[in-house]
């Protein structure tokens, strides 16, 4: 059991700058929860409050049902992986991994056993006597992970741990982290600004903007049913198309509830149709192709329509030439509807 | 063109060596000469017969051993004492926020501007009121604090990344352990440099023993050597130079091993 | 509650030893000196006579002290210029990181770490009018020997020479570090702009190292105001007061003539001069120094 609960939490810096106000959040036991949002949204602050590195201005923090507001970071049974790894530069790899164990008064024999085991797992066995400066970025990342794992914590906190790696290594580490989570069955709390990372690893996504939770759900739900305009546009690449109802009304053949103010659709759901065809129950519009980006398996186009620029994505081998005319159709069921407050209109 | 500039460079280097190194050669050479040889003109480049006994002479003529012990005691005591006052103060100034911090730090910096040459007289009076003239304490205590050391070390402590301390706190390290295992190892070059600068400064110090002592009880080597200039039968330059060689040896040995550290200390000031 | 007090008091506890040392051995003597300057006292008698500002008045009309001030000013100007000017030349010359240059750096820095007492004795020997090396060298060039430290017109020059010789390595090393931290691409950009060697020096190098030049000027000025050991060992202020400096006359009045009040007055004046110089430097130069 290691459920983390934030109750009515407020965080203010220097008595003026409120980053988080009256936030409630439950992080399920054993989940891989990703806190995601643009920079300055308060995600790192939440992580650091869970770690005990930042005191709460108001509210309660519970781990396993116990209030931990006054519990020191070292006594919370958590481990943290920092963005820049924060390895102790004067200690060897072994010294880094062992430091926390020594402070927790774990006997030497047990320490040796654990370190050997962990280093086998993450593949550091031959580097134990090196200093961090002598390691590559990926190896440092592994030391940071090993240092966290060796403590057998209930909770792993990770603050953008992959952002300093190159793209290829990042992809690899992503799958390794998913594996690790499955093996350890501990609670992972992971902070990132990268929605792809969030979607690919999380069992639960918590989407934040300006200190307020926009949506907290499984990645599937967040993608399929974005709760509001912010979520809709933050998750998914390329970004969801979003237009005002009154602008697109002339091209709309579908019936929509009265309160719908904005209509969104994902680029992959805008499908080219043959000229002159008028599919029922949809939004159908023609325009001129502005740009084309070849991504490999897919092609992303930008289309100039009478009501604005539409991004759409095809998986066809066949290319549309720039300046060519295309008619797009978006099915009624692919549309995301939002009211005038930007909230999802449920049907 | 290239050859020309190489020749130019060699000439420049020779001139610099002549100016900065030759005097030391002359000191060494004179140290091995006889009194008679120091009184010939023009002087000879090499001693005819190296007089090793000049060094024995120096050790006998002035109580060299006595001065040496005093030098060691005061120098080592000041180095150790400065570490004890400087490390905690630099740590507090770097890691804590407290009332009056800017004021107290300002005070620290101001003392850097107050040299011994300005304050010796009131301190002489102070020590004499407590009957502490000609004691080790009067030579050691005034150098207990090092504003420069606090400044330099605080600078280094400030550069220790915050995440490192947070990682250590998550690793359940106590504050003392954080200082011992993270701050001090990371600051080792600065600490070594500070110790070296203090050591060299105190070992060489002629001024303070001169103004704070009235007899030989606690006087140190530089004063001991200078007393030889008062010889009745003219100044024995061969012995003076032998004495100079003797007191410079420890410094030169240290310098040979640690001159890189000393250069580093000064680049810290410019870095970051 | 007790714990809370401890955690508030902790930083004060940590700085207490250092602060105690500063208060007792730097701040107190300065205060004490200001106070003593208002008295007439010979250190031995238990009575101190309060005489107000009489010491200052006397000092103001003291011809010898005027000479002392002038000597100190001459010494300061030339030794600071010499240290920084020659130091900069040496630093520029040794800038390239080669083995030979590194050896030369160590050699030039060496005098800085030898005791000023030893250095003074060494130069006393080198400048010996009868058997000294310098005069032997002059003789070899058919130039008549000089009474370096024994004649009024050369004594100050000699002392300045010795002091610059001793400390120029320090300035050179600091300037060298500053030079090496100037980003190489600035010079590359300047080269693309077809800047001459001189323009590179004055438009790129000097502005970039100006904080260091500023720092050295203050440090060297204050050190020069306090010149003492060389004078005490080599000339004792003479001949004819030509090398009598502020600190040396402070020492003489205090420890030789036991005129503590008058000596303190000299100390206070020295302190005021140093403070004024520091302020003036900061005001004048901080406007023109380029900080990154």
Strands, helices and their partners?
The complex is a heterotrimer of chains A (347), B (272) and C (292).
Chain A: E1 4-13, E2 17-27, E3 32-36, H1 43-51, E4 58-63, E5 66-67, E6 78-81, H2 93-103, H3 108-122, H4 137-149, E7 155-159, H5 167-184, E8 187-192, H6 195-201, E9 204-209, E10 212-217, H7 219-224, H8 229-234, E11 241-244, H9 245-248, E12 262-265, E13 271-273, E14 282-294, E15 299-305, E16 308-314, E17 325-331, E18 336-338
Parallel strand pairs in A: 3-8, 3-9, 6-7, 7-8
Antiparallel strand pairs in A: 1-2, 1-4, 4-5, 9-10, 11-12, 12-18, 13-17, 14-15, 14-17, 15-16
Chain B: H1 2-20, H2 22-31, H3 53-61, H4 64-95, H5 101-112, H6 116-129, H7 136-140, H8 147-159, H9 162-170, H10 175-186, H11 188-204, H12 207-212, H13 221-227, H14 237-270
Helix pairs in contact in B: 2-14, 3-14, 4-8, 4-11, 5-8, 11-14, 13-14
Chain C: H1 2-36, E1 39-40, E2 49-50, H2 54-60, H3 63-93, H4 99-113, H5 116-126, H6 133-140, H7 152-180, H8 184-192, H9 197-225, H10 229-234, H11 246-256, H12 260-286
Antiparallel strand pairs in C: 1-2
Transmembrane segments (chain B): 12-32, 67-91, 103-127, 133-153, 178-200, 237-258
Pfam family, one (chain B): BPD_transp_1
Membrane topology (chain B): Multi-pass membrane protein
- Any idea how many domains of chain C? 1
Strand content of chain B: under 5%
The name CATH uses for the topology of the domain at 62-230 in chain B is MetI-like fold
Query: What class would the helix/strand composition of chain C place it in?
Result: mainly alpha
Query: Helix share of residues of chain B?
Result: over 70%
Instruction: Provide the CATH top-level class of the domain at 62-230 in chain B.
Output: Mainly Alpha
Protein name (chain B): Carbohydrate ABC transporter permease
Domain ABC transmembrane type-1 (chain B): 68-258
Membrane topology (chain B): Multi-pass membrane protein
InterPro entries (chain B): MetI-like, MetI-like_sf
């Amino acid at each position: 059991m290691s459920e983390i609960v934030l109750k009515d939490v407020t965080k203010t810096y220097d008595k003026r700058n409120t980053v988080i106000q009256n936030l409630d959040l439950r992080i399920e036991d054993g989940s891989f929860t990703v806190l995601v949002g643009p920079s300055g949204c308060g995600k790192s602050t939440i992580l650091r409050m869970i770690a005990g590195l930042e005191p709460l201005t108001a509210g309660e923090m519970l781990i396993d049902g116990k209030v931990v507001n006054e519990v020191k970071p070292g006594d919370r049974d958590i481990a943290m992986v920092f963005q820049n790894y924060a390895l102790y530069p004067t200690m060897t790899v072994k010294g880094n991994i062992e430091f926390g164990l020594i402070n927790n008064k774990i006997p030497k024999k047990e320490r040796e056993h654990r370190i050997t085991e962990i280093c086998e797992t993450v593949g550091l066995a031959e580097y134990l006597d090196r200093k961090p400066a002598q390691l590559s970025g990926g190896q440092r990342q592994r030391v940071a992970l090993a240092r966290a794992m060796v403590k057998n914590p209930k909770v792993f906190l990770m603050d953008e741990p992959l952002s300093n790696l190159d793209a290829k290594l990042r992809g690899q580490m992503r799958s390794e982290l998913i594996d690790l989570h499955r093996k350890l069955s501990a609670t992972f709390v992971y902070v990132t600004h990268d929605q792809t990372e969030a979607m690919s690893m999380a069992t639960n996504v918590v989407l934040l903007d300006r200190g307020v939770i926009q949506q907290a759900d499984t990645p599937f739900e967040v993608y399929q049913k974005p709760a509001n305009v912010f979520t809709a546009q933050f998750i998914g690449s390329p970004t969801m198309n979003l237009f005002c109802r009154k602008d697109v009304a002339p091209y709309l053949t579908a019936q929509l509830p009265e309160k719908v103010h904005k209509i969104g659709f994902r680029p992959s759901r805008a499908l080219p149709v043959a000229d002159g065809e008028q599919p029922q129950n949809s939004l159908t519009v023609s325009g001129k192709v502005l740009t084309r980006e070849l991504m490999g398996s897919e092609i992303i186009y930008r289309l100039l329509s009478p009501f604005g620029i539409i991004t759409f994505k095809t998986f066809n081998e066949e290319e549309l030439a720039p300046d060519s005319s295309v008619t797009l159709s978006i099915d009624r069921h692919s549309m995301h509807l939002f009211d005038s407050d930007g909230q999802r209109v449920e049907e | 063109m290239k050859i020309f500039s190489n020749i130019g460079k060699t000439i420049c280097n020779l001139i610099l060596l002549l100016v900065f190194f030759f005097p030391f050669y002359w000191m060494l050479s004179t140290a091995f000469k006889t009194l008679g040889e120091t009184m010939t003109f023009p002087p000879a480049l090499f001693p005819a017969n190296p007089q090793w006994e000049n060094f024995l002479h120096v050790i006998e003529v002035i109580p060299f051993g006595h001065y040496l012990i005093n030098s060691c005691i005061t120098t080592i005591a000041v180095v150790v004492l400065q570490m004890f006052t400087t490390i905690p103060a630099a740590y507090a100034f770097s890691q804590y926020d407290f009332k009056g911090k800017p004021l107290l730090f300002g005070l620290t910096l101001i003392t850097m501007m107050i040299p011994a040459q300005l304050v010796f007289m009131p301190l002489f009076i102070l020590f004499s009121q407590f009957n502490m003239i000609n004691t080790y304490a009067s030579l050691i205590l005034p150098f207990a604090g090092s504003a420069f050391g606090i400044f330099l070390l605080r600078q280094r402590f400030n550069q220790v990344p915050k995440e490192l301390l947070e990682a250590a706190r998550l690793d359940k390290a106590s504050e003392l352990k954080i200082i011992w295992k993270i701050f001090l190892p990371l600051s080792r070059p600065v600490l070594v440099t500070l110790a070296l600068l203090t050591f060299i400064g105190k070992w060489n110090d002629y001024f303070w023993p001169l103004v704070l002592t009235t007899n030989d009880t606690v006087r140190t080597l530089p004063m001991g050597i200078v007393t030889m200039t008062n010889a009745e039968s003219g100044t024995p330059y061969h012995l003076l130079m032998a004495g100079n060689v003797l007191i410079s040896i420890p410094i030169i040995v240290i310098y040979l091993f640690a001159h890189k550290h000393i250069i580093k200390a000064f680049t810290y000031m410019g870095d970051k | 509650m007790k714990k809370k007090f401890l955690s508030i008091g902790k930083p004060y506890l940590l700085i207490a030893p250092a602060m105690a040392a500063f208060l007792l051995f730097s701040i107190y003597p300065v205060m004490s000196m200001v106070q003593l300057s208002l008295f007439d006292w010979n250190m031995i008698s238990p009575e101190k006579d309060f005489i107000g500002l009489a010491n200052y008045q006397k000092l103001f009309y003291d011809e010898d002290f005027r000479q002392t001030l002038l000597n100190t000013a001459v010494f300061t100007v030339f030794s600071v210029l010499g240290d920084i000017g020659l130091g900069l030349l040496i630093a520029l010359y040794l800038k390239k990181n080669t083995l030979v240059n590194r050896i030369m750096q160590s050699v030039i820095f060496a005098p800085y770490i030898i005791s000023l007492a030893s250095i003074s004795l060494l130069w006393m020997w080198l400048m010996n009018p009868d058997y000294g090396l310098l005069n032997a060298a002059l003789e070899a060039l058919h130039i008549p020997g000089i009474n370096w430290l024994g004649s009024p017109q050369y004594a100050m020059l000699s002392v300045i020479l010795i002091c610059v010789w001793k400390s120029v390595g320090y300035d050179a090393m600091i300037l060298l570090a500053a030079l090496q931290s100037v980003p190489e691409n600035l010079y590359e950009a300047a080269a693309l702009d077809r800047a001459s060697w001189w323009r590179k020096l004055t438009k790129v190098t000097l502005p970039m190292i100006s904080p260091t030049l500023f720092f050295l000027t203050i440090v060297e000025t204050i050190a020069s105001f306090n010149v003492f050991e060389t004078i005490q060992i080599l000339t004792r202020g003479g001949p004819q007061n030509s090398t009598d400096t502020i600190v040396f006359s402070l020492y003489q009045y205090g420890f030789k003539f036991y005129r503590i009040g008058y000596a303190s007055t000299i100390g206070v004046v020295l302190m005021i001069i140093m403070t004024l110089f520091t302020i003036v430097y900061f005001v004048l130069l901080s406007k023109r120094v380029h900080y990154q």
